[in-house]
Design a protein that fits this description.
The protein has two domains: 159 residues, D-Maltodextrin-Binding Protein, domain 2 (3-Layer(aba) Sandwich), CATH 3.40.190; 151 residues, Periplasmic binding protein-like II (D-Maltodextrin-Binding Protein, domain 2, 3-Layer(aba) Sandwich), CATH 3.40.190.10. The chain is built from 13 helices and twelve strands. The strands form two sheets. Strands 1, 2, 3, 4, 6, 7, 8, 9 and 12 form a nine-stranded mixed β-sheet that branches. The protein has a three-stranded mixed β-sheet with strand order 5-10-11. Helix 11 runs antiparallel to helix 13. The longest helix has 15 residues.
Length: 338
Amino acid sequence: MKWSRRLGRLKYPLAKREVNLVGAGAHIPAPLYQRWFKDLNNTDPNLRVDYQTVGSGAGIERFTQELVHFSASDVAMKDQEIAKVSRGVIMLPMTAHSIVLAYNVPGVSDLKLSRQAYIDIFLGKITKWNDPKIIKINPDVNLPDIPIIVAHRSDTSLTTKFFTQHLSAISSEWKQKVGERKKVQWPTGIGGAKCDGVTALIRQNEGAIGYIEFGFTKIAKLDTVTLENKSGNYVKASLDSAQATLAAVPLPSNLRVFITDPEGTNSYPIVRYTWMLIYGKYDNVARATGIKKMIEYCLNEGQKVSADLGYIPLPDNVRQKVAETADKISPNYNIKLQ
């Protein structure tokens, strides 16, 4: 089957007998995956996919031990991890998500921050909203003379790792003083557990600003900062600007790429892929066929509902590369899908 000719057209035969697939892994894409797999089962009652939300690390561990048929991770597997999987590993970026700076400043609904400004806020060097560095970027905004309260994650978090990777990529001072980890020693601010904890802190404290997943802003109805990107343009977080980021970042042959400071005039600066982890070989033809059907559904019909849940639909050039890579999945003999 040539996937390149089928993108946008879901035309595979229904399974002739029931196939059950079990996957486990990342938290961030879990709501989207569960929606996809529910819709897929409605389309093909003989193909059932059970996705267990256990976290990226636990998902990779189960995948390595061959306790699941596929896994999912918000971090691409390392070469050392891949080497432990005798059946081979195919990593497929299936969706993406943005991290935004949400804020609560009375009377301010349209705020811009330069790269240096938001670095200095999180370093604790800019402490009031009417700081001259912020006023300079927002000359037409009436910024109040109130303290800035930085809200950050208090727990171990991949969102923190992704955000601090970006800060480290754009600031040598941040990289030296704080660094990039799942949990860091914040120079300033107050901590909350998980994205909903940080969201609550922002809503409850006037003057607060914090980093959260883009999807949470829809639920919480929080304002988000328009950020300066690498090209010097100010870009608002949106589905279009995140897709522009993905389209501007070339995917290598192994589809493993880390977007820390993307190129592109219209690119939003903090966007991350999340991957499905698939075995290179399956010994069961029905299961291999089921895996390919699942992937094809996610690349086509699945992308149409991604935005509804706050995830980034893959641009066509990325879908094309993912589809071509997925065609390499093998049960050690040809699988013919009509």
